[in-house]
Amino acid sequence: MGAAENFDLFGIDELDSVVPLAMPVGFNEEDSLDDKIAATVGAIKAQMSAGKHIVVACSFGKDSSVLLSLAIQAMEELVAETGTAPKMFVITSNTLLENPLMDNYSLSEAAKVRAYAKAKNLPIEMRIATPNTSNNYLVNLIGGRLIASTPDAGRKCTVMMKIQPIERLKKRLAKEMGYSKKEARDKFVTLIGKRYSESENRGRGMRASGERPDVPVKMVRDKQGKAYEWVMSPIAHWSLDDVYYLIAYVRNDMITTYSDFEQLVEIYRTANEGQCMINVYAKGKPASSGCGSRTGCHICLAVKDDYSMEAMLRDDQYAWMRPLNEFRNYIQRNHFRIDKRNWLARTVNEDGTITLAPNSYAPGFCLDLLRYALTIDADERRAAARLGIAPRFQLLRLKDIIAIDFLWSRYGYQHALMACHTANEVDNGKRWPIPAADPNESYPTSLPSIRKVTLPFADREYGHFAVGSMDVLAAVTDTLDPFAVPTGDEFDVDEEGAELFWGFELENALERYGPVDDDGTRRDGEFSPSNGAHYFLRMGTVSLFKGSEGEFERMMQMSNQIHRHGLRDILNDPEALIDKLSQHGDMLPAAGGQFDIEDLIRLSRSQSGKGIIAKEVTV
Of 258, 293, 317, which closes a domain? Predict the structure, then answer.
């Protein structure tokens, strides 16, 4: 939480309104808190009176909690005056990777919203948005589809885990209410808890974009102006002091709302080692600097250090979260190591060549991440059982493991069903502890600068219809259409199907396609990774996004090419890749293609898998 707790929910190109020079009483930063409360509640109530459905975007941090309490007050007043009000929706997001304390707290606060609405007979619905399989950050990271978001690499994680799930939820709400897309744009007003004074950059950006506390503004999503929604920032003009004072009003029973905010205060206190207590009373005044804590995703690399988590871990009662922090730090230590990256691009050039450069995480690193994640989950289940409680967190569900297996098949990363095999090993007692950081070792903080290098890749089999998305087993048995794949609105793993597979089919599937024979010997090369993907598609456990069949065909062609040339175990080694690809006589380099093999090999050896800081070598 903290200054950036109210995440940016919208990809906004422009606004059609600007803030006027003079604002009414209660909408100016210098106005009294009582005037601000009255004006803010009145502005929200005016939208309800106009028949608008209010959507409160709430993270249950200090700002959005205050905003929600004001919106509920507006509804209570309107219902008291008129006997009715349009349905209001409170939306929060669960990224599936939240700090467990914050996750449990948010669920508790959401339950309080539901209970308060029921007790007061208010038309309020509490909804929680979660990422689908396509947007599951950890699945995609371990599956080799993406790398972690870092401070200088944008916030794709926020888009995947928060923005897109919330947008899907809003569309679903409109459909449930019976509104067309066009009607929904003008029937809903979203409230967000951003404030001018959060930071200079935040204030400058809000004013430049015309965000207002008194009326909604049209937020345009495209250059044509066809995609838009109405958004209002009711506490934009509030100071941190104002926020703290309202929280104090609630804690001192001066205002009644859905929560007493005691858990909110405790969350901030815990995240700051007890140094930042929201302890505002009539005789006191809070510090204007705020607490600066953030209790977001426990895996977040978008910040250099997770100070809030580390502060919590200094208290023995939160030691159970230490494995999550160790997992995050392990990823951070290895993120820029070139021997932990896959050096093959995901696209084959028209002339059959491929680009060589460090891209996504390497197969071996992804397998390690899966092993550590599953070990952490298993240890937590055991610890929770000893305490007689439910597990306090879970990194990967059964459907997530299957999704990872499918992605590994798609990218040619592992033997068929390797993720399921690994999970089965953990279920049977095997553990992989995370290696401790070496205090005498430094780790790279950036990738070296590398010129694009092309190598011959596609052989004469590449592009043949039988080595792509075709299910050879279905073709041989003549029982199913070998090219048919189940599709839906998104790439997904059927949850019930995953449970049935794990309970009844896992042993048979591993015996038939898995990476290890009955006697324990490895089946290297016996089955291509695509066997795993075809198996799950054939069972109907996995469905593709409708319209992505062509892309699936292309990736299966590449996956099988990697398998045929035995490249899987050397995808992280440019020197070995050059040597291996050069051995294939049916692959010719592009006409005029130039690359300096010696420089590339020297770059590879400069790290030698020892994790030293990458040297800036231009190839």
Answer: 258
Sheet holding 124-129: strands in order across?
14-15, 217-220, 228-232, 188-191, 53-57, 88-93, 124-129
For residue 67, give its domain range. 14-132+155-258
pTM as predicted: 0.86
Is residue 106 within 8 Å of 94, Cβ to Cβ?
yes
Same domain, 580 and 467: yes
Number of domains in the chain: 2
Long-range contacts of 419-428 (CB under 8 A, 24+ apart): 419/370, 420/506, 420/509, 420/510, 420/514, 421/510, 421/514, 421/515, 421/516, 422/367, 422/370, 422/371, 422/374, 423/374, 424/506, 424/510, 426/371, 426/374, 426/375, 426/377, 426/378, 427/378
CATH number at 215 reads 3.40.50.620
In a domain, 284, yes or no: no
Q: 538 and 441, same structural domain? A: yes
Question: So what's the pLDDT on residue 469?
Answer: 76
Long-range contacts of the stretch 300-304 (C-beta < 8 A, 24+)? 300/149, 300/157, 300/328, 301/148, 301/149, 301/150, 301/151, 301/328, 301/331, 301/332, 301/335, 302/149, 302/150, 302/151, 302/155, 302/157, 303/151, 304/151
Tell which of 258, 287, 317 closes a domain: 258
Q: What are phi and psi of 242, to 5 degrees?
A: -60, -45
Separation between Cα atoms, residue 136 and residue 131, nearest integer Å:
6
* C-alpha triplet 544, 545, 546: angle, nearest 5°: 105
Buried/exposed 330-345: b ≥16 CB within 10 Å, e otherwise: bbbbbbbbbbbbbbbb
What are the residues facing 190 on neighbouring strands? Answer: 55, 231
Candidates 425, 408, 362, 309; CA nearest to 574 is 362
Average pLDDT by consecutive 10-residue portion of the chain (619 residues)? 39 42 87 98 98 96 97 98 98 94 95 98 97 96 95 82 92 94 92 93 87 92 74 96 96 97 90 51 39 70 87 93 97 96 93 90 98 99 98 98 97 95 97 94 86 83 78 66 84 96 95 79 74 92 94 92 91 91 58 39 44 28
Q: How buried is 395 (Cβ within 10 angstroms: 0-12 exposed, 13-18 middle, 19+ buried)? A: buried
Nearest to 62 by CA among 313, 273, 282, 238: 238
Residues present in the chain in total: 619
Q: What is the pLDDT of residue 10?
A: 36
Collapsing DSSP to helix, strand or coil, 535 comes out as helix
Q: How far apart are CA 567 and CA 300, in angstroms?
A: 31
Q: Looking at the structure, tell me whether residues 113 and 224 fall in a common domain.
A: yes
